[in-house]
Write a structure and sequence with these properties.
With about 140 residues, this protein is mainly α. The protein has eight helices and no strands. Helix 4 (about 50-65) crosses helix 8.
Length: about 140
């Protein structure tokens, strides 16, 4: 899949915003901005239904998370509600669980650039690479 017009900063920003509700298809369907970046409707073609695009975007995110190096793969799986048992968790609870994996306090995980922000950037870069064919 090659989408050469992907804006990396918009992608990273939408991933940050997606942390609040997660990246399962149901959550993405409620907030289509990330879906529009990952699975854009093609001009001059009948667009697939939003539900199909949300499912495809969720699969792309999950596959990309799975391909990240440990512990980033597990951390982002937790942060995006992709890990089993995380669907109903608050962002705060997910941060606590993710922070435990790197042995830091949740406030440190959230505020220091080398943790949450860096992990979101790592995922954004991996997605960007897949979308643009640079990976």
């Amino acid at each position: 899949m090659i989408t050469p017009t992907v804006d990396f900063e918009a992608l990273r920003s939408e991933l940050r915003a997606t942390l609040r509700r997660g990246a399962r298809a149901r959550s993405l369907l409620d907030r289509m901005a990330l879906v529009d970046l990952l699975i854009p409707a093609k001009p001059n073609e009948e667009a697939p239904p939003d539900a199909q695009r949300a499912l495809e975007a969720a699969r792309l995110v999950a596959d990309t998370v799975d391909a990240l190096d440990p512990p980033i793969d597990r951390i982002m799986s937790i942060m995006l509600c992709l890990a089993p048992g995380t669907a109903g968790m608050t962002l705060s609870a997910r941060r606590t669980r993710a922070a435990d994996l790197v042995d830091v306090q949740p406030v440190t995980f959230r505020s220091e650039e080398r943790y949450e922000q860096a992990f979101v950037t790592e995922l954004a870069l991996a997605l960007y690479g897949r979308l643009t064919g640079c990976a």
